[in-house]
């Protein structure tokens, strides 16, 4: 099976498994797990922040950020297709009691004038308080596009002018850095807090990092506890995270190259449309509307030939490359796409 549903399907490397076996552990809720401390210190340094917190998942990291930045009745500004708004089960309402102000972006970028308009003015008792502006980089539903540092700088300057913190959902932030060939700090210097996933392209079995100012992270640590995220001998899970950050970042370029090759090959098939210019990292969005079949139906056809992908809309398919996808898998996937389309045409 060629599994292109997500980079979350990656399994830990042998080095990660060995690191887990040999990890020195303690009780992290008491702050006594040396491997967790090592991971958090490493991550804070890499991300250019004072402190960091190991959390169970990207969603937990984002929700802790919302809970720590805001309070019930506040409002947060998000891009309309952002992961926090679209894929986290309404948690900002269920857990933090905040409401969302969404802005439709272009390739994941909210227009600056629209952000300015969305910020609530102080002093009017009828209005909620704007507690946070959220960005996502790379932007999943925009096709894994990179949100460039100059745009992030402009948002950050506006936020500072209004005294509002900026949180970055950087689940695939290292993909963005590799795509632009810049250090990850070129992005994180323009946000107050950031969440990065260890378990996607970096291949750790679980976990994310939430980073920010030291005092803010201490408050976030309490929210992690309230959410049931206080883990005991969690060095077993932190150890592969260290390997992920020190050994797995540079190889993300391989995933990007294969995504571009995949997109070019599939785009040659009549009736399929891909915006090749914006295949920037490891995600490929494929429009099949001209074929007269839905994404779910097409994916069922692909599955019969051993290809797995994700439906991203009625006629939109997402394929995601990762460490376990090799060159021969790209060739095979293009061939099977071609075969499925040919079979559909024969059926009429």
From TrEMBL:
Keyword Transferase included in the entry's annotation: no
GO terms assigned for molecular function: L-allo-threonine aldolase activity
Any one GO BP annotation for this protein: glycine biosynthetic process
PANTHER family recorded: L-THREONINE ALDOLASE, L-THREONINE ALDOLASE-RELATED
UniProt-recorded name of the protein: Threonine aldolase
Signal peptide coordinates: none
Gene Ontology CC entries for this record: cytosol
Family: Belongs to the threonine aldolase family.
Cofactor(s) named in the record: pyridoxal 5'-phosphate
Keyword Lyase among UniProt keywords: yes
Organism: Tepidibacillus decaturensis
Domain Aromatic amino acid beta-eliminating lyase/threonine aldolase positions: 3-286
UniProt KW keywords: Lyase, Pyridoxal phosphate
Pfam families, alphabetized: Beta_elim_lyase
PTM annotation (N6-(pyridoxal phosphate)lysine): residues: 200
């Amino acid at each position: 099976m060629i599994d292109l549903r997500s980079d979350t399907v990656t399994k830990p490397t042998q080095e990660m498994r060995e690191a887990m076996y040999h990890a020195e552990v303690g009780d992290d809720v008491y702050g006594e797990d040396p491997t967790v401390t090592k991971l958090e210190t490493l991550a804070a340094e890499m991300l250019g922040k004072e402190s960091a917190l190991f959390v169970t998942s990207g969603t937990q990291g984002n929700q802790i950020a919302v809970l720590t930045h805001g309070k019930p009745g506040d409002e947060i500004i998000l891009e309309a297709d952002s992961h926090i708004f679209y894929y986290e089960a309404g948690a900002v309402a269920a857990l933090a009691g905040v409401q969302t102000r969404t802005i439709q972006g272009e390739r994941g970028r909210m227009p600056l004038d629209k952000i300015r308009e969305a910020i609530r003015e102080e002093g009017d008792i009828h209005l909620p308080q704007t507690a946070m502006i959220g960005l996502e980089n790379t932007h999943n539903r925009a096709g894994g596009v990179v949100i460039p540092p100059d745009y992030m700088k402009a948002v950050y300057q506006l936020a500072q002018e209004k005294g509002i913190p900026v949180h970055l959902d950087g689940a695939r932030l290292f993909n963005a850095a590799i795509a632009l060939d810049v250090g990850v700090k070129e992005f994180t210097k323009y946000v107050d807090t950031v969440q990065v996933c260890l378990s996607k392209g970096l291949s750790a079995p679980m976990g994310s990092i939430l980073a920010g100012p030291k005092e803010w992270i201490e408050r976030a640590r309490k929210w992690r506890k309230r959410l049931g995220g206080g883990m005991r001998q969690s060095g077993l899970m932190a150890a592969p995270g260290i390997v992920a950050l020190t050994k797995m970042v540079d190889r993300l370029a391989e995933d990007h190259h294969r995504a571009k090759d995949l997109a070019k090959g599939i785009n040659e098939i009549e009736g399929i449309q891909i915006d090749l210019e914006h295949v920037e990292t490891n995600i490929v969005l494929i429009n099949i509307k001209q074929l007269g079949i839905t994404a779910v139906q097409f994916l069922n056809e692909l599955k019969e030939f051993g290809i797995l992908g994700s439906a991203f809309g009625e006629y939109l398919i997402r394929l995601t490359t990762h460490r376990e996808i090799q060159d021969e898998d790209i060739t095979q996937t293009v061939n099977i796409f071609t075969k499925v389309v040919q079979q559909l045409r024969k059926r009429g």
